[in-house]
Write a structure and sequence with these properties.
β6 and β7 (about 170-175) form a beta hairpin. The chain is about 35% helix and about 20% strand. The protein starts with 7 loop residues before the first strand and ends with a helix. The strands form two sheets. A seven-stranded mixed β-sheet has the order 1-3-2-4-5-8-9, sandwiched between helices. A two-stranded antiparallel sheet has the order 6-7. The chain contains ten helices and nine strands. α2 crosses α3 (about 90-100) and α4 (about 125-130) packs antiparallel against α7 (about 180-190). With about 260 residues, the protein is an alpha/beta fold. The protein has two domains: about 10-120 and about 190-255, Rossmann fold (3-Layer(aba) Sandwich); about 125-185, no CATH class.
Length: about 260
């Protein structure tokens, strides 16, 4: 399986214990900059753009084995025999798949508001709305936000998605390939069959938002029997944005344990 060279930024001391942060679908490393800066006080933090996201290359294949292989190659090329992983949503599934297939490469495993299961959520409406946006007619980002309001009523989600809209030579374009996203969405909402792989036997922390329903204990423990589950009050799926201090406290407590 061919891996791609991932774009990344690095924070913290080179001699500190390495921590790799993996973002979710439609996101990028920039969404985690605040959290990364805080964690960099005690860790060597690598903020990755997963394939087809941020500044990383586009590739027609986007599933969890492929994305986990990208991370594995990233670690090897930088001489990281072991690293802690912090993954949110899609990035959490990448981290879980790597942990199941290469447990010796994982120091501490932290999963934010996702479980190793398939979800019924569909991105079809979101992708259709983004594709229907008349990019040539846009003169500013506010117009894009207003045109998406009917199809995507939640303002914070619209603003999050529009981080992928960039101005290039005076014209707006999508930084991501929406066709690849559309073809890959079923694989992103799913999780690969673990087959005969043994469960991940080391400690793992699963942090869930109290207002989210993505994490259920019965979905976690079969593959991660030593997992700790922590729920953050006042947070939904975007728990690191909605409750950053509580999220950081949970992550740091686990990393220091």
């Amino acid at each position: 399986m061919a891996a791609v060279e991932l774009a990344y930024s690095e924070l913290g001391r080179p001699d500190a214990a390495p921590l790799i942060i993996l973002h979710g679908f439609f996101a990028s490393s920039r969404n985690w900059k605040f959290i990364a800066e805080k964690l960099a006080a005690s860790r060597r933090v690598f903020l990755l753009d997963l394939r087809n996201h941020g500044a990383s290359p586009h590739h027609p294949l986007m599933d969890y084995p492929a994305m986990a292989e990208d991370v594995r190659q990233f670690m090897r090329q930088r001489g990281l025999t072991r690293a802690s992983l912090l993954g949110h949503s899609m990035g959490g599934k990448v981290a879980m798949w790597l942990a199941l297939n290469a447990p010796d490469m994982i120091d501490k495993l932290i999963i934010a508001d996702i479980a190793p299961v398939a979800y019924s959520h569909s991105f079809e409406n979101t992708l259709s709305a983004l594709k229907a946006l008349p990019l040539a007619a846009l003169s500013n980002r506010k117009q894009a936000e207003e045109r998406l309001a009917e199809a995507i009523p939640e303002l914070s989600y619209r603003q999050f998605l529009l981080q992928n809209l960039v101005l290039h030579d005076g014209h707006y374009r999508w930084r991501v390939d929406l066709d690849i996203f559309g073809r890959s969405a079923p694989a992103i909402t799913a999780f690969p069959d673990a087959g005969n792989r043994p469960p991940y036997q080391d400690a793992a922390l699963f942090i869930a938002g109290a207002e989210s329903n993505f994490v259920k204990a019965e979905a976690v423990f079969p593959l991660f029997p030593q997992a700790q589950l922590k729920t953050l009050a006042g947070a939904g799926h975007w728990l690191h944005v909605q409750q950053p201090e509580s999220f950081l406290a949970a992550v740091l407590d686990f990393l220091r344990a």
